Amino acid sequence: MGGANSSQLSCSSEMLKESIRYVAICKKCSCTLKTFGFLFRSLEAALRMTTDCGAPIWILILGIIFPTGLSNEHFFITNSISEGLLPSCGALRKQYEEDERLSFAPFPPDISGQWISERCEIRPGPEFIARKYEFYKNHTFKMIQFFYGDPNCVLPLYSLVAHGSFDPIGPSWVTPGGLEIDFTLFNVKATPYTNDVAEELFYRINRTCPDIVQKRHWKPHHQYLIYSYDDDEHDESSNLTDYDCLHGIHAVFNEIQLIRIIKRPGRIISFSPRSKFNMKSYLYLGDIHPVPEGRFSYRPTSYQEPLISVDTAIHCHTCAKIIRSSVHNPPHLHPRSSVSVALKNDWISRGCEVLSYGTFLKRHYTFETPELRVRKRKRLTSTWRAEINYFSDPSCLHPIYSTNLQGTYAVGRESSVQGFQNMEIITTSTILTPQDASIVANLNGHSGDVCGKQGSWILGGSQELAKTSGCMGLGIFLPRREKSLIKTEKDSRDFGLLYLGVSQVLSDETRNNKPTSIHPPLVNCKKDDIDGNEISPLSYSMPLNSCSKFPTSTISFTFFVVVHLIVNH
After folding, report:
1. Residue 132: exposed, middle, or buried by beta-carbon count in 10 A (0-12, 13-18, 19+)?
2. Which range among 135-144, 241-250, 379-388 has the greatest average pLDDT?
3. pTM, two decimal places
4. How far apart are CA 59 and CA 14, in angstroms?
5. 471 and 404 part of one domain
């Protein structure tokens, strides 16, 4: 009995320390408290007291009743993340590097199983899409794509379901680490979800295949065959031969031609090196051509957002909705936080990113905006800096060169891509540092001063490229004026995310072009301390932008813990 009381006392003491730690954190910060964030924290702690510590059930009941009885005047919601609570860029980078060290990419990859989107995805076009793919051991597949009318994937428009087969070819020569695949489509069916969409699909398909549609008006929630290759796969009511009506809606499935699987840690307790994690499996499929008309002849050289394996999709509400969905019951995803994050901060890559033709990189952007009172006295422009490191491998372990860029930017009106704003970026300076002998040899091989001073490049030596108007060999031109897209938001853990569009150089030829492709998101962080001390990120269980001068629900729970300690002592 004494041992049991001792273990309960120890467990309760740890819970008390944890609760007091949250109070101490919030007394130091100046931001405000999200009601439901700390309410959930209090309930979670009370539940742990009853299950892990053997506390009586009244602890849980009081934890539920007391916080919810508080007046709402104790709680406020803030739109910005407190600088003091942001994780340091160095700590985040170390965490991502540790996760990459623990990650691995099996080759050849086994893609059998079901794979789904973790969030609403944005494709060039723009298209808002959620995917649900299943690959079978006999090398056949079923791919369902849900298309939406909004960037949160709340309003489904229509879906496409494709059946086919695939055969692995071998390693990709263009994109190292990827596996190239040949595939055959058997059939594709479209299902509209509204009358307007049914009419629009009918019109587009009828223009592409007038002999197939035969003037039959389409209805919502009815399936219609728009592609057929294998006659055995036709509907019983159809006696038609092979046909292809996919061009009418720019529907392609050639993303399956390039695949890669990565298994990496998915941290479920807190964002620190000591946190517990489970390995999650992600399937990367080929990218989509940015111009709809170019999709059909395009072979992928990069990747889209990854799909997660259903077997490892835990703690993911979006995943659960997509798993339960079907073409007759499309998933209605929850709107993501509309609270924007201040752009003035640092933003880094979450891991190794890949661009077209096997370009692997990591990015670190810094945006600075003049204070309002300064701008009233003197017209100043907003400035940006970026450090971009390039690598030769998909794990970003072997650097080849880095660039340090700087210039000015201006955020304009709302873009035609929902949720984004237009952005104009001017690059005035680029410092290039080669980190691989082959790059040094390439740079020194240029005749004339077209990429720094001819023959002067050395390993690890940096040069400013503005004097030579850039570096033609690496596709760098200075000064450069580009148009792009920008959006900030918060993820489920309250981390700030920055989405930047794939920029297009402004010229007479591209002036009317609109960028619709989006880079992977960057994560918000703050500069490391000058003395080198890095502040570790806070626990996931406490939202990074949530705090209060005195979190009442946490204090109330602390009181319950103290009572429990006294009773058991």
Report:
1. buried
2. 135-144
3. 0.73
4. 16
5. yes
